[in-house]
Design a protein that fits this description.
Elements: E1 3-4, E2 10-11, H1 21-24, E3 28-38, E4 114-122, E5 127-132, E6 138-142, E7 146-150, E8 155-159, E9 188-193, E10 202-211, E11 214-223, E12 234-241, E13 251-253, E14 259-262, E15 282-285, E16 305-307, E17 313-318, E18 324-328, E19 336-339, E20 371-372, E21 380-386, E22 397-402, E23 407-415, E24 439-446, E25 454-459, E26 465-469, E27 488-493
Antiparallel strand pairs: 1-2, 3-4, 4-27, 5-6, 6-7, 7-8, 9-10, 10-11, 11-12, 13-14, 14-15, 15-16, 17-18, 18-19, 19-20, 21-22, 22-23, 23-24, 25-26, 26-27
Length: 494
């Protein structure tokens, strides 16, 4: 059972013999309202990335999930078939709880909201991803090598991937700015709850490992009720190129219960447009790791690959009609939000135009972005498309963690020709020949320097918004990390 020390800190049960988890874990659980915050637009910070290869994280279709109705060439799409081994959980789009083919984009500014933050957990060690189970339990990954379960009363370690690299974190309140901590940007990254949870009681975990001295990434399945929390019960995908930077790593279960996996270029930008490589891709697979029904059918390619030409995507969401949308880190700014279409090429790495200039898109043949930040950067990370009513001003908007900008980024995607919300000072509304004309993106920012580096945003079962921070990774600024970092925070109306 969990124990609470006299200073209010709690630690979970020791999961495995020989683990040093107890000395590495310092967590505190609160019900503390930090501040009532009126959302305010903030200016993006231009990416200033030392070391060359890292980005701003770093410096940093309507037919449902397939996204085949767009404005760029796509590969042939296979028949959906019977779903193979994943047929027991694959579902029609119409059965998705958030499905709303008649959804409407808001026309008001999200900055009208008066919101407050409530810190739920303190002293996490670089939390990276959040995933809710149907029973309301929240699973959290820490990049240092743990999977936690938080049920509102306590938090405990439920898995520690034995094969994960030894990633590190700064001490709370540290004034060091090393840029790279042990493990770089790798470690224990994405998590998603199995669509049939709790039978089986499985979670998917994306993490960095080494093989013959080479960094790679894989997606394993862990049984959270197992007596052996370090050993996976299955491997879904392995051999994803890894590096000190650009590991991708986000996992999401989509509307039809397929598992979506974002991979970075892993230091191999020349392979991102090669469909036989897993570098710089968005993958879509069944829970067993097989190619999902409807994936592109490419000659001499990997049929798990849904889209190609990505640099370091770390967020994927779905509009209520099932349209998939992803964000990714750009080079020297030029972060992007993209509508995903099966088989589409998003342009990285184009040797003749590696910096993804807006003006290069019209003649490139690459899929155009919904939004490109230009020379500035907010370093987009984990995202959710918020559909609940608990925070009305943010309903039907894409919420994204901003790393180098230390903000919550709020994107309204309005159908072409529709009424638009007021624009913000920081970013212009995008209606240009270089942009995807399916939607108009209006970007606002909130909570600038209130929380530090926002790593991921998630919608809770009751409609609350949850975010986690990555302030102990050596890249925070303006007073972060604090003694309480890193934190899990809930956002609600004031």
């Amino acid at each position: 059972m969990t124990e609470e020390s006299t200073d209010g800190r709690r630690t979970g049960d020791r999961p495995a013999a020989g683990s040093d988890w107890r000395t590495r874990t310092r967590r505190r659980f609160l019900a503390l309202t930090a501040a009532s915050v009126a959302g305010a637009a903030g200016c993006s910070t231009t990416s200033d990335t030392p070391g060359g290869g890292a980005d701003g994280e770093d410096g940093d279709g309507t037919d449902g999930e397939d996204g085949t109705d767009g404005n760029s060439p796509t590969a042939t799409v296979t028949d959906a078939g019977d779903g193979g081994e994943g047929a027991d959980v694959t579902r029609p789009l119409e059965e998705w709880s958030a499905y709303d083919p008649d959804w409407e984009a808001p026309t008001t500014s999200p900055l009208e909201a008066d919101l407050e933050t409530e810190v739920l957990v303190e002293n996490l060690e670089i939390p990276w991803d959040l995933s809710f189970a149907p029973d309301g339990s929240l699973f959290i990954t820490e990049r240092v090598g743990r999977v936690l379960r938080f049920d509102g009363d306590d938090v405990r370690t439920v898995a520690e991937p034995a094969g994960a690299i030894d990633a590190g974190a700064l001490e709370p309140g540290s004034d060091e700015r090393p840029w790279w901590v042990d493990g770089g940007e790798g470690g224990t990254l994405g998590i998603a709850v199995h669509p049939a949870y709790p039978d089986p009681a499985h979670v998917f975990v994306y993490y960095t490992y080494t093989e013959d001295g080479e960094a790679k990434n894989r997606v394993d399945v862990f049984d959270i009720e197992s007596d052996d929390p370090g050993t996976p019960v299955d491997t879904i995908v392995e051999g994803i190129p890894g590096n000190n930077y650009h590991n991708g790593g986000r996992l999401e279960v989509g509307p039809r219960n397929h598992l979506w996996i974002t991979t970075g270029d892993g230091g191999l930008p020349g392979e991102t447009r090669d469909p036989s490589s897993l570098a710089g891709k968005i993958l879509r697979v069944t829970p067993e790791g097989d190619p999902a029904p409807g994936n592109p059918d490419r000659e001499d390619g990997d049929s798990r690959v849904f889209t190609v030409g990505h640099r370091n995507p770390q967020g994927v969401v779905w509009l209520p009609d099932g349209t998939p949308v992803a964000n990714e880190h750009g080079p020297s700014g030029r972060d992007e939000i993209n509508r995903l279409e099966a088989g589409a090429n998003y342009g990285w790495d184009d040797e003749e135009s590696r910096i993804r200039r807006r003006e290069d898109y019209p003649e490139s043949g690459f899929h155009r972005p919904l939004f490109n930040t230009g020379a500035t950067s907010f370093a987009p990370s984990g995202s959710v498309f918020y559909t609940a009513d608990a925070v009305p001003a943010l309903r039907n908007r894409m919420l994204t963690g901003g790393l180098i900008s230390q903000q919550l980024v709020v994107t309204t995607l309005s159908p072409a020709g529709g009424e638009l919300p007021p624009s913000a000072d920081a970013y212009e509304q995008v209606t240009a020949d270089w942009s995807d004309d399916a939607y108009v993106a209006t970007v606002h920012t909130m909570f600038e320097n209130e929380l530090g580096r926002v790593r991921h945003v998630e919608q809770g079962p009751e409609g609350d918004i949850y975010v986690c921070t990555s302030n102990r990774d050596g890249r925070a600024k303006d007073g972060f990390p604090r003694e309480v970092d890193d934190v899990l925070v809930r956002i609600r109306p004031a």
